Amino acid sequence: MKVVCVGGGPAGLYLAILLKRQDPSHDVTVHERDPEGSTYGWGVTYWRGLLDRLQEHDPESARVVEEHSVRWDEGVAHVRDLATRHHGDEGFGIGRHRLLALLAGRARALGVRLEYESAIGEPPAGSDLVVAADGVHSALRTGHAGHFGTRAASGRNHYIWLGTTKVFDAFTFAFTETRHGWIWAYGYGYGDGHSTCVVECSPETFTGLGLDRADRAEGLVLLEKLFAGVLDGHPLVARPGASWQTFRTLTNRTWHHGNLVLLGDAAHTTHYSIGAGTTLALEDAMCLAGALKEHAALPDALAAYESRRQAELLAAQSAARYSAQWYENLPRYIHLPPHRMFALLGQRHSPLLPYVPPQLYYGLDRAAGRLEALRRLKRWLGPRAARALHARSAARRD
Q: Which residues contact 126 (CB under 8 A, 6 or more apart)?
């Protein structure tokens, strides 16, 4: 099979690796519009479950990715001058640049052709399969947007993706109160003496602080002052072109058209606050490779991939939606004692939380943690109650 993959991000590179492992006779080429070694990001996060799946599909790439990752099993939240630390699941961070270099090296070793500074805006002729892994602004998808049923919804809050030389020893949340409202940062280490630092705030805080008018240097100086308590004198750093944005949640009704198929951010996005973007992209590649192996006919393989991944993504998309809403409604939770606020931060994916008073939810969650019967009731009641309350709210708006 001749495969052309447009986009040299994690999804496209890992799909190429898996296809060559399945059948070395596959002719696989990855086209990336940017120069080799360039990247727009800092570090990415993932969890132990992804490493286990990487190990199942390609032990070699799993080994090198783990070797070059940093890990943590704690989270810390700073609220004003108070801090609380909790033990949590094992998490990992790796530089996006390093991850891409490792996957590119593995792909080359397996015989994949990598073509950098090679922009492709139309599906090339003569290929059995064309994979659009060219990101949220996918040119290949945009050319057939009507067929794919592409929809994008922008979130309310503003955010900017930065780096810092402060190496956080845990996944760090920092909430700072200003006279214009709250502003907060998510920080995590990823190696090479750096951490990612994503800063977010409401539109009112964004304009009140003058971040909409400040140039890059002025904005960084202001943010360094606001988060001085966690940066410990280290600077914040912006990549060229970095700017404040609102997050765009992108969905597509269908993911394939003829021999063209969508992968990763070209197919879907989930809010960065759940830290799952890279994981979901790699899982897309695993699913598509598996479907191509299981089904001899390409239309059957692409239909199976689309159906399976759309079903698997429902939980992550729901979690991302509620997580984004939690931050958009931060004043509802921020005045709780820090350990309670942090506990509800960990529960922000719950569909029930927006409809239950925070103090009551905290008490119920604590009780459910001690009694299995209450845990079962919570798992059963949460989605049902949320659907009923959401429907009631929608009816009132209408």
A: 2
pLDDT digits (tens, 9 = 90+) for 40-70: 779 999 999 999 999 999 999 999 999 999 9
Fill in the amino acid letter for 290.
G
pTM, two decimals, is: 0.91
pLDDT digits (tens, 9 = 90+) for 318-369: 999 999 999 999 999 999 998 899 999 999 998 889 989 999 999 888 877 6
Distance (Å, whole) CA 143 – CA 128: 19
> Is residue 112 exposed (0-12), middle (13-18) or buried (19+ Cβ within 10 Å)?
buried
Q: How far does CA 21 lie from the centroid of its chain?
A: 27
Residue whose entry in the numeric block shows the structure tokens 């600077």: 235
329 close to 320: Cβ distance less than 8 angstroms? no
- What's the CA gap between 25 and 27, in Å, rounded? 6
Q: Provide long-range contacts, Cβ within 8 A and 24+ apart, for 57-63.
A: 57/18, 57/21, 57/286, 57/289, 58/17, 58/18, 58/21, 58/106, 60/106, 61/14, 61/17, 61/102, 61/103, 61/106
Question: What would the two tokens of residue 4 be?
Answer: 């052309």
Give the three-state DSSP class for 213. Answer: coil
Over residues 118-151, the pLDDT tens digits come to 998 888 889 999 999 999 999 999 999 899 999 9
Instruction: State how far the Cα of 222 lies from the Cα of 212, in Å rounded to an integer.
Output: 12
Q: 341, 184 in Cβ contact below 8 A?
A: no
